[in-house]
Amino acid sequence: MSGRPTYYKTIKRVGQWLDLPDEAEREFIDLSHELVSDYGAEFSQYNEKYLEFLETRVFSDRELIEFLEQHGVNPEVREQFISQEIPFEDEVFRTWEEIRYDANEMLDMTMLLNTIHKYSGHSDTGCVESRYTLQKLIYLINRSLVEKKTFGPDTVPVDHGKLEETGFRYTYRKRSSGPFSKGLVQDKNRLFASDLISEKFTEGEGTPEINEEEGRFEISLGPAGEVVMERFSEIIDNTQTDVLFEWQNSIEMVTAKVASMTVSELENRIENSEDVQEKENRDLLIRGRQTEYESDLLTDALGGGVSHV
After folding, report:
1. Based on the domain organization, do 44 and 185 belong to the same domain?
2. CA distance 292 to 169
3. Residues 90 and 234 both lie in one domain
């Protein structure tokens, strides 16, 4: 994310720690960014100097303190902002690192990291070249599972083949840029905020995706994501569980194919597919996996320890 990676992550983590309602959290983040801009500060990395700036200038600003009061933030917490004694290491970042995801969210995000890892290995650029590519890549993986028939009963009202029981839970609808999933965007943002993936904006040739008209957001594993894949990649590759075997095969097949395509070739591949052509904007293209799994199944599938990702 160009110009705001450090601001985004640290300020968002403080907003999460405050446990504000969603709309109030967004307002807190926006106000904090405005104050950063007002002071004209520029930081290229997270360090003590950066935290000190946030404490002494941004988080203790009168306008922000008034905002916290208006939204009923605990007086003791407000006092930590006023006195410039926010417990970043003891509470803020520790709270963020406590995984709040259920087993199925963990499964989706682990396999999403795995997909980015596999694609990056096939691509000459060593990354997923754009948000557009990521959206269509995951769509094609789930589409390949739809086309694989299952011996079990289908979930009414549609036949989704193997996607009934495995694959990503992301539901796709048609929009101007083609298949699009809001759920995928949400999980991508969560991975970014946790340093599991990185996004770098590169000006130049854009894509059909919204916010990529003037350039692309290149997506790669972040430092934490590299650690996760070092730990789980081989386990996923060698799994024989019903849940992951077909899923991983589809990831392998689709990432290899899409990594060899240009954006134009990928766009043509998507636009010329019957499943997309016959639909109108906002129409359902694929409903994500419906089967829900328990945490013990996830632990068995990935060899234990997944809850600590």
Report:
1. no
2. 9
3. no
Of 97, 121, 140, the domain-final residue: 97
In the three-class reduction of DSSP (H, G, I as helix; E, B as strand; rest coil), residue 284 is classed as strand
**Which of 36-40, 52-56, 103-107: highest mean pLDDT?**
52-56
H/E element holding 141? Answer: helix 131-146
Q: Are residues 125 and 182 in the same domain?
A: yes
Angle at 104 between CA 99 and CA 106, to 5 degrees: 35
243: amino acid identity, one letter: V
pLDDT of residue 180: 94
How many whole angstroms separate alpha carbon 263 and alpha carbon 266?
A: 5
Q: What total of structural domains would you count in the chain?
A: 2
Residue 91 pLDDT exceeds 90: no
The kind and range of the H/E element at 221 are: strand 215-221
Between 240 and 305, the more confident residue is: 240
